[in-house]
Every structure is written in structure tokens, then in C-alpha cells.
Description:
The chain has helices spanning 23-30, 84-100, 162-166, 172-185, 187-194, 198-205, and strands at residues 13-20, 40-47, 66-73, 107-110, 114-117, 120-132, 135-145, 213-218, 223-231, 237-241, 244-248, 253-255. It has 2 domains: 13-205, BirA Bifunctional Protein, domain 2; 213-255, SH3 type barrels, CATH 2.30.30. The chain is globular. The chain is an alpha+beta fold. Strand 5 and strand 6 form a beta hairpin. The chain is 23% helix and 33% strand. Helix 2 packs across helix 4.
Amino acid sequence: xxxxxxxxxxxxxxxxxxxxxxxxxxxxxxxxxxxxxxxxxxxxxxxxxxxxxxxxxxxxxxxxxxxxxxxxxxxxxxxxxxxxxxxxxxxxxxxxxxxxxxxxxxxxxxxxxxxxxxxxxxxxxxxxxxxxxxxxxxxxxxxxxxxxxxxxxxxxxxxxxxxxxxxxxxxxxxxxxxxxxxxxxxxxxxxxxxxxxxxxxxxxxxxxxxxxxxxxxxxxxxxxxxxxxxxxxxxxxxxxxxxxxxxxxxxxxxxxx
Length: 257
């Protein structure tokens, strides 16, 4: 996978927990409000209360996948954090970039933060922001990537893993090091200062089902169908319905796979 074994980036702290309820909850309860914040990666073999988007349960076979949360203090980012939509898109673009570097199949982003390979979900991202008063002080980035799991519950027909895709067994810790190293380099962040549309354009470039007919549902399970036209700077999904362009918020709608 990697030409040389990757080492843990020196700028990060790494916390390994054999089992935990949720890595995001652990970071929030134990690290995010305890004095000076540091770049910290918490990872585990097994989550008993793993969560995904829309409070869905994240199911994973113990010891087979990458389950981690990254605590990133805001001073480590150069993207203006009053623009949380751009921050969210940046995170999705970075994780996609890392996966794309280790697998030959194309990796796409399913709005807002799922990772898709060959039409199936290989991973997901859950971002929770920490505030001190009204000031945004840190982000907790929960990342789940199916690495070596080859069998999934019947309730997850659209799940896949890197090993299912290409048959290769991978070291999950090396992928964690690749993720933290990429965030550490912040090359995309730096370039975005010169080109403010860079993150948005990169997100849309790899947007799953761009230009194709998709189905979205709201909280009451009402469905709306249209052509996916892209994602706007404020994070909304643009859907072309009967020649009218609708803007859908991910807090109100979900895109079906």
C-alpha cells in the first residue's frame, strides 16, 4: 500500500483504546475541555456506541476497520472557521484524497460526508464542533473507514471495504498515520487562501452522482427526485427538478444511495 512504513507524525498525540463507546464522545468528554488543546488522534478496535450522520448507528467488526476521532484545535487551520461549510468540505476532500492514494478504484464523496467506492459506502465522517462561549475552539472529526471487513450485516447491503474491493489486507494504523500526516501538511488549506473556491470545486469534482438523477428524503420520509447539480458554498445540495433549481439542506434532507 505504502512504499515505506509510515511513522506517527510527531506533531500529533495518539491515544489507543481497545474498546470504547464512541471515539467522538471520548474526545468530547475527556480531551476537548481539559486545558490547552493539542492535535490528538483517538483510535480503537471496537466501538459499542459508534455513531454516523443523522444519529445512525455505525456498525463495524472489531479489529477490522479504522475507527478514530481527530481533535483539531482551530489555530491549526488556515480556513476561516466562521465558514463551517467550507471546513466540512475540506475534511471530506482530505479523507477522500487519502483513500484515493491507496486504492485504484475511484473514490467519491456522497453529500454531505460519506465515502463511496464502486457505488457502495466504504466510510463516513461525523464532525462535531467545540465552542468556548461563542468562540469555535476545536473540531472533533470522527472517521470510520471499512478496511479489512469482508462480511456485513444483512441490514447493510450497500456497505463495502477496501479489502472487498481489491482483496488486499491493510494496516489500519498506517492509514491513520496517512490521514494525520495529510491534515498536518495542510497543503490544500494553504492553496485555498490563494483560490477561495478551491475546496468547493474539489468537493464538487468528486461528488457522487453529479449530473445524475438522485432521490432525497426529508424527516417525514417524503421523497423528491431530480438531477444532482452540485453543492453550494453554504453546503446545500442543488437539485434540478422540472427545470427549477432547488437548494436542500442536509439538516432537512438526506441523499439516498
